[in-house]
Amino acid sequence: QANQGPVFDFSDEQLAVRDAARDFARTYLLPGVIERDETQTFDRELLKKMGEMGFLGMMASPEFGGGGLDTVSYVLAMEEIAKIDASAAVIMSVNNSLVCWGIEKYGSQAQKEKYLSRLTGGEIIGAFCLSEPEAGSDATSQQTTAKDFGDHYLLNGTKNWITNGNTSGVCLVIAQTHEEKKHHGINCLLVEKGWPGFSVGRKENKMGIRASDTHSLMFSDVKVPKENRIGEDGFGFKLAMSTLNGGRIGIAAQALGIASGAFERALDYARQRKAFGKTIFEHQAIQFKLSEMAMRIEAARLLILKAAVLKDQGKDFVKEAAMAKLFASETAMWVTTEAVQIHGGYGYVKEYHVERMMRDAKITQIYEGTSEIQNLVIARALI
Ligand code: CAA
Ligand code: FAD
């Protein structure tokens, strides 16, 4: 368990947050998790409840309705939510570590009052829009443009794969203003859903995290007031990268939750299921799978906590966040695949949850920077 050991001595507050998230996940998220995956829906009421419980603005300042909690508390909660429902975890991760954090860290007082205070309690949900049809890993190649017209920008282009694409009320949109300056000409704009020229594409029919809605967003001459630019002119790419550093800790914790949820189910199953006159746990091949799972999960947890602690201490954590995200997502994929194996045929059907977890795990190796991109970030930090 994460509350033991000499390395991380959690405070009472951190443990209380973790326990509240665990109770919430078991009480509200577990019932219906299979159905939500099948129907690709996430109840508004559930989202509202997550907001009321404080899970949507955990690290934001109380001045704007946030929980004022540290990153360690956030990752502890994230693991518990993702253990049960990885879709809920990604909704939470985008709202907390990309949208709320981006606005709180770099936004103006007016932007915080207008948007952050509504995002923290779930009155509206946020989306973070960096990826495009031709700009995923290669994020500096932004094709979406924000032309400067003095008191406003005109926004044109398409964003792809946007989590909370349809449910969001406000979006952080990254767009190119001064092409000749390359990534130093990019801006980040706060764009409200429903503004003229803003349309939402069809919902993506995904392999995993199916209850989380993913859409393309289209902008055609959307007029965005200048006061909705976050930070100085040309700061948008830096903002995106810096926000993603923290986001990667959140996604790492999501991956950890998926892995630990699948591990717990596999361990329980192995102790009950009998084959050849004994429990399958008593077969060493199965025992060693479980010991390897436990070890990799613990290593992932330590990397995540290290990145979170460095962030909370205001130290550089770029490399550690990339390591945590890379290791935790690879762990999630491996652990969930082995959890299905341990369940045999039962692992291949929905009632036992592990097949969903295996599908959910895959995305953690792709979004917020693929595993290859995390390797690139780590390698660059080495030199
Ligand atoms: N932190 C802070 N700044 C960073 C940074 C980081 N992790 N990574 C890059 N930068 C800065 C660089 O310092 C540089 O700025 P200066 O020129 O001012 O020094 C600028 O960004 C450009 O960096 P590079 O020269 O290294 O650019 P590159 O094109 O060679 O590579 C990259 C950049 C690291 C590959 C980057 O484009 C990247 O991270 N790609 C992955 C994109 C990504 O993670 N997308 C996630 C979308 S959101 C999402 O997915 C949400 C979700 O699913 C739920
Ligand atoms: P590409 O960049 O085309 O990569 C294809 C392959 O090439 C990958 O394996 C990649 O690792 C590899 N590759 C690329 N460049 C290199 C390199 N230099 N070295 C080695 N290998 C390389 N984006 C948002 O902005 N906001 C969101 O809310 C969001 N949510 C998402 C939700 C889902 C369900 C999905 C599927 C995606 C989401 N994304 C979001 C987009 C996601 O961040 C991108 O899909 C991801 O960054 C990869 O970009 P790409 O899909 O264009 O792949």
Automatic annotation (TrEMBL):
Record domain Acyl-CoA oxidase/dehydrogenase middle: where: 127-222
Protein family per UniProt: Belongs to the acyl-CoA dehydrogenase family.
Native organism: Ravibacter arvi
Record's keyword terms, sorted: FAD, Flavoprotein, Oxidoreductase
SUPFAM superfamilies recorded: Acyl-CoA dehydrogenase C-terminal domain-like (SSF47203), Acyl-CoA dehydrogenase NM domain-like (SSF56645)
Residues annotated as domain Acyl-CoA dehydrogenase/oxidase C-terminal: 236-382
PANTHER family assigned to the protein according to its UniProt record, in alphabetical order: ACYL-COA DEHYDROGENASE, ISOVALERYL-COA DEHYDROGENASE, MITOCHONDRIAL-RELATED
Protein name: Acyl-CoA dehydrogenase family protein
Cofactor names: FAD
Transmembrane segments: none
Sequence ranges assigned to domain Acyl-CoA dehydrogenase/oxidase N-terminal in this UniProt record: 11-123
